Amino acid sequence: MKIRKTIVNQNDTRVFVYENRKEEYTVVAIPDLEWSCLISYSETREEIVERLKESLSKALHENAEELVERIYVWTREM
Fold first, then answer.
1. By C-alpha distance, which of 51, 50, 70 is closest to 8?
2. Can you name the residues that pair with 8 across neighbouring β-strands?
3. DSSP 8-state class, residue 62
4. Distance (Å, rounded) from C-alpha 55 to C-alpha 44?
5. CATH of domain 2-76
6. pLDDT for 17-72, tens place per residue?
């Protein structure tokens, strides 16, 4: 598991990224927002980004595009 720090709602926030290579998925969680998401290896970039935007916009109540891009990069570097 990797832990990344980022700014969310003007606060330092930890983002947890867990990769399960055997079952081919990644789980991303932001406990401060009470938010998490499971990302399958088989999903395309467009599917992942769209789903993350939709889900994070509900949790953040603001533009989530920057955070979505960071999360996407973090999930692909593992």
1. 70
2. 11
3. S
4. 17
5. 3.30.160
6. 999 999 999 999 999 999 999 999 999 999 999 999 999 998 887 778 999 999 99
Query: In angstroms, rounded to a whole number, what is the distance separating the alpha carbons of residues 20 and 37?
Result: 13
- Residue 34, number of CB atoms within 10 A of its CB: 8
Runs of H (alpha helix) within 11-64: 45-60
Half-sphere exposure of 74 (CA within 13 A, CB side): 23
DSSP conformation class of 63: -
So where are the chain's domains? Answer: 2-76
Beta-carbon count within 10 A of 44 CB: 8
Residue 20, SS3 per DSSP: strand
Whose structure tokens read 């969680």? 29
Buried (b) or exposed (e) across 54-65, using 16+ Cβ within 10 A? eebeebeeeebe
